[in-house]
Design goal:
Strand content: 15-25%
Largest sheet: 7 strands, mixed
CATH topology of the largest domain: Rossmann fold
Number of helices: 9
Shape: elongated
Low-confidence stretches: 23-36
Order of helices and strands: HHHHHEEHEHEHEEHEEE
Strand order of the largest sheet: 5-4-3-6-7-8-9
């Protein structure tokens, strides 16, 4: 119902109640004062009935608070794609559409939701972060998985990068060093319907040999050197995107490609980056 319709309903109802009150008050002059004491109660009943009929129409004419919030997030995602991604050189239409569709605010803590579509990483607990949207889009574009490809991700975090990859790859296997983050991400991805993502808690330096070799490998934390197990588990003709470097020094985002006929690796630097360090032991253990 639109505002004009609401106004007409309200005016008609108000006039109806007013007429009823006038008729009652006119009748009251012809009856005893004892009978007239019932009129205030009748007024209250009429008002209650009137507003009971009108209130659902008023509520239905305005979006709920949660629906409005979702609309705001959707608008923020569109601005993010236009102002942060496309404007900075992301060109793959698949990636741009996925970044527009996947709700990043569902992968950050409640207190961070207002900043979900800003151009910056956000804390997700356990001294870990979710990468800024541009880096997620860039690494996905560089990796370029196809619909029949399997991807190994090192560093699940909140599961956002895995969700983005799941929209373009056949299967995503993701390893997270922090058990609590792994279980949270697995539950979140399942709840959101990403059935082609498998998450385990484990040491990313060892990879996931049971499902190797992989068409693509993406690493979302920075090792000081490229882990040999990951190179071994990369399929011939496959591609790896990984930030490399110590936290105290400059890190570089690398693209590594394995030959189709041998295990020879060719790499290139893309941009300097800043990632949390990749660790080889579960958090809290020595």
């Amino acid at each position: 119902m639109n505002p004009k319709s609401n106004a007409r309903v309200f005016d008609a109802g108000r006039q109806c109640v007013r007429n009823s009150f006038s008729d009652q008050e006119k009748s009251c002059s012809d009856v005893s004062s004892r009978a007239c004491t019932a009129f205030p109660l009748r007024r209250a009943n009429l008002l209650s009935r009137f507003f009971a009929l009108l209130l659902p129409s008023l509520i239905a004419s305005f979006p709920s608070r949660s629906a409005q919030r979702e609309q705001d997030f959707e608008a923020a995602r569109t601005r993010m794609v236009d102002q942060q991604l496309r404007a900075r050189g992301i060109q793959d239409d698949r990636v741009l559409q996925i970044m527009r569709d996947v709700p990043r605010h569902l992968f950050v803590p409640e207190e961070q939701k207002a900043y979900a579509y800003e151009d910056k990483p956000l804390p997700i607990g356990f001294q870990q972060t979710i990468s800024q949207p541009y880096i997620v889009a860039l690494m996905t574009e560089l990796l370029a998985p196809g619909p029949n490809d399997t991807v190994l991700e090192i560093g699940t975090g909140s599961g956002y990068q895995a969700a983005v990859l799941a929209r373009v790859a056949k299967q995503v296997y993701s390893i997270e060093i922090v058990p609590a983050l792994a279980s949270q991400a697995a539950a979140r991805l399942q709840q959101l319907g990403f059935a082609n993502v498998s998450v385990i808690a484990g040491d990313g330096y060892k990879g996931w040999p049971e499902h190797a070799p992989f068409d693509h490998i993406i690493v979302t934390a920075a090792p000081p050197e490229i882990p040999p197990a990951l190179i071994e588990q990369l399929k011939r003709g496959g591609r790896m995107v990984v930030p490399v470097g110590k936290q105290s020094k400059t890190q570089n985002l690398l693209v590594l490609e394995k030959s189709t006929t041998s295990d020879h690796i060719v790499g290139r630097k893309v941009i300097p980056v800043r990632f949390v360090p990749m660790v080889s032991e579960p958090a809290g253990k020595t």
